[in-house]
Fold:
Amino acid sequence: MIIAIAYRLFAWAPPVLWMGFLFFLSGLEIRTGLPFVGLDKLVHVILYSVLGASFAWSRWRTGSKIPVSLLVLVGAIYGYLDEWHQSFVPGRFQSWGDGFADVTGLIIGFYFFGKWFSRSVVVDKGFKDD
Structure:
């Protein structure tokens, strides 16, 4: 029983740790401009696609029945709270566009994780021999 609980907690560690890393990054002061317009949105999409994929991996690994939409909602709320957090950091500001990029990244992460794993994994059986 204790091992099963520890296994589930360990399986959900990647998204929690990634969220902590995102919080750390959003607390860094930015002193210079970006090389081109839109780079910040691209970075948000990439970073939050990792969060989406880690949520999807944890859900798959634990066999959780948590709806994907709920996990995306949790990630979106986190993304917008992180944007709010940035409003307190010198040189940073809150942006609805960045929040939208975060949600887009979450959905992309879930999508590509599902695409990749739907072809290479059988639920509860591990990897298929192709």
Remarks:
- Confidence is low (pLDDT under 50) at residues 121-130.
